[in-house]
Amino acid sequence: MMFRPTIGMTNPYEYRNKAQFQVRLIDGHVAAGLYKENSHDLVDLPTCSVQMPATMTVMRQVMAWLEELQVPIYDEEHNSGIVKTIVVREAAATGEIQLVFITNTPKLPKKHQLLMKIAEKLPMVVSVMQNINAGKTSLIWGDQTTLLAGKPTITEELDGLVFDLSALAFFQLNPQQTKKLYRLAREALNLSPNETLVDAYSGVGMIGLSLADVAKKVRGMDTIPAAVADANANAQRNQITNAHYEVGEAEVLLPQWLASGFVPDAMVIDPPRTGLDNVLIDAILQSAPEKLVYISCNPSTLAQDLQALTRRYQVDYIQSIDMFPQTARCEAVVRFTKRH
Fold this sequence. Notes:
With 340 residues, the protein is of the alpha/beta class. Helix content is 27%, strand content 32%. The chain is built from eight helices and 17 strands. The protein has an eight-stranded mixed sheet with strand order 1-16-17-15-14-11-12-13, sandwiched between helices. A seven-stranded mixed sheet has the order 4-3-2-5-6-7-8, with helices on one face. Strand 3 and strand 4 form a beta hairpin. Pfam families: tRNA_U5-meth_tr.
């Protein structure tokens, strides 16, 4: 096994395309930022050196309007108030921005005045959404998301492909490094035109769709219905006819596909920080595609999963890439060869 040198950024600042800040009152003023470590004590962030500048411009202006209009801010201790979290995401290629108000109730006081100000002063905001997440919960997002103004998605571009991103859809936080990451995955898979590919944990289909031109067929899955809808819409928008995405857990769908006679030649897996489910590992080992690439965002769960996967596969190399400069986190692309 070979560890390749980490691929970094030339300018490791202003790279995050998404700000997801909690909103609270501090000394009578509206504050937005992140919690101190191991607490729910909010640290107001007027600036943030790793955020794309426009995300902070929108965030701070919206905070000022919430204070000016006296919109009720969520009080966690008393489970009262309305605005809990603000999410701002920018599409690097188009400059389009989506703004999401995450609220404690369906009601959003002064909504009309807020939307008027946004339309007048923040023309880059082309999508305004409201997500309802009632009560005390450790989850940021609720199940219900509605469109308040503009369109329901923003448009991003990557290596010649166009992607529509809905509010809950996963998209890599660092657009510059994402291009490098997916080229690394493409190189590691080295697909042939007659090979079928499984794109597990597919999100809006970015990895699978970027590989569709060198594969016979791409099948993908994700647990978020909106992301799967985006993935299939993105395939259609990019005139890709050999890719299809389904809603469901990889550990459930893959065994079903195998049972129906589908045999993948290659698989790319890009799981959340929790790593792979044991049922999915078993399904991977059972189907044993010739080509396997694992994209990891958590070295500790990667190490656990490697122990299981190396029963059937050999690790050729691990290529780390710094997707989150100024933090302790990085991503890694792992290429496997099947043992015969």
